[in-house]
Amino acid sequence: MKTYSIKTLLEGGGSFLENKVLINAWVRAFRSYRFIALNDGSTIKDLQVVVDSKFSEEFLKKITIGAALKISGLVVKSRGKEQTIEVLAEKIKIYSETSPEVLQGTILQPKRHSLEKLREQAHLRFRTKFFSAVMRIRHQLAFSVHKYFHKRGFLYVHTPIITASDAEGAGEMFRVTSLDLKKLPRNSQGQIDESQDFFGRSTHLTVSGQLEGESAAMALGKIYTFGPTFRAENSNTSRHLAEFWMIEPEVAFYELSQNMDLAEDFLKYLIGTILEHCTEDLDFLNQRFVEEQKQKPKHDRLENTLVERLEFVNRMPFIRLSYSEAIKILLASKTHKKGQFKHTVKWGMDLQSEHERYLVEKHFRAPLILFDYPVAVKAFYMRLNEDEKTVRAMDVLFPGLGEIIGGSQREERYEILLKCMKELDIDEKLLWWYLDTRRFGSAPHSGFGLGFERLVQFVTGMSNIRDVIPFPRTPKNAEF
Ligand code: 4AD
Ligand code: MG
């Protein structure tokens, strides 16, 4: 007898009729000691297994919610309306018994649990409908990222996780050391002697694979990275993680407008694959999303359903607007005039999420690509514009989320890059290899970073980023 996944069985439907099959799965529900709803994670749908009187009541009592079972049985036409086929159990093996008392207090108890409670039991939340749906969509998105780039001739480059350089120049890095913190070696001046550390220097977890990615693009043409990145910023928000995954394409000879085209096409492709391939999971999350909106105060509610939002973003051309134009719009807004922005608007400021959301959700009601930001608010590697006040930066802003992508055309001119680094006090000795790329065969190039969890958040409609990654890392939280 062959073992099948529930997805295969349900999709095969009628073609399995009168076949004997084996299934390994967990109990989602057990009604009237007669109908077991089984799930194995392959699909959001459950398989109905019917048990008859050949199983003793004593045995059936051991089948509790969450228990792992091996069932062999015959596939028959279902009498219920919910499904086309069901399985008549012939043999049932209970892998391990769980007493109902043990389930008390866990999220496996069949009732509605808050997302906070699910997070506290993150090791068990894979077993819930909602989180398994999010996980399947996350997988499909990751798979589609590789597919998209592979088809277009991009090479996947693995950039290091341990690094001695601060790619974003923001200093929000986690230190990596093998020194004994209780017995730190000191030099003659009493400072920590980093030469005795594992790498013989100070090292950190990377905040971005971009700088190494750029060196690769300067020979391989089109590359992308997709790896974990780390930020020690103390942001306890619904959009920040201390450990998140980032996708960073880098393309030689691309100027900023081509970079924008790539970002827009890439996002639309990814969202499109979910609309096409994840309909069941998406329908489930859509219902959740609609219910959640109903519980919000009217002014906070989003008018569209999740699916409508995804279709909308897929259809609409993204609006492209310079930072300076955006500031003009913000200054002319009622919100500004009534003093309702927490951070006062003026040219040169870094846009806060309230401003981004005003532009995307109130003013344009469409995805937005902002470009040409003031030099002072962006990283050192961005190409200086002729006005010498702005750089060729771009941020893609999405409704309900804000920034989903940050990128730029890079400064390919050696002298200007060096000058910028000096002005920002960035150690040119540490980044000698990065500067070298501007000395040998330098060329215009551009790239961007897509925050993978922000994308999963947008696609699944989850309001908190901690609910789209298995084990979130946030300030004061590294359980599991
Ligand atoms: O805008 P960021 O900081 O850009 C870079 O790191 C560039 N090196 C990318 C590049 O040009 N190759 O980060 C890029 C994206 C953001 O737009 C956001 O989606 C996500 O990464 N991101 C975070 N996601 C979750 N938690 C955080 N703390 C994040 N910080 C950035
Ligand atoms: Mg950014």
Describe this structure in words.
With 480 residues, the protein is of the alpha+beta class. It folds into two domains: 6-104, Nucleic acid-binding proteins (OB fold (Dihydrolipoamide Acetyltransferase, E2P)); 129-172 and 207-467, 2-Layer Sandwich (BirA Bifunctional Protein, domain 2). Helix content is 32%, strand content 22%. The strands form three sheets. It has an eight-stranded mixed sheet, sandwiched between helices. A five-stranded mixed barrel has the order 2-3-4-6-5. The longest helix has 23 residues, at 129-151. The protein is globular. It binds 4-amino-1,4-dioxobutan-2-aminium adenosine-5'-monophosphate and magnesium ion. Residues 395, 403, 406 line the site of magnesium ion (MG).
Would you give the CATH topology of the largest domain? BirA Bifunctional Protein, domain 2
Give the terminus-to-terminus CA distance: 38 Å
Architecture of the largest domain, according to CATH?
2-Layer Sandwich
- Which bin fits the share of residues in helices? 25-40%
Biggest sheet layout: 8 strands, mixed
Bound molecules: 4-amino-1,4-dioxobutan-2-aminium adenosine-5'-monophosphate, magnesium ion
Strand content: 15-25%
Q: Uncertain runs with pLDDT below 50, 5 residues or more?
A: none
Q: How many distinct beta strands?
A: 17
CATH superfamily of the largest domain, called what? Bira Bifunctional Protein, Domain 2
Spatial extent as radius of gyration = 27 Å
Strand order of the largest sheet: 7-11-12-17-16-15-14-13
Give the class-level CATH name of the largest domain. Alpha Beta
The outline comes out as globular
Please give the count of helices.
15
Structural class: alpha+beta
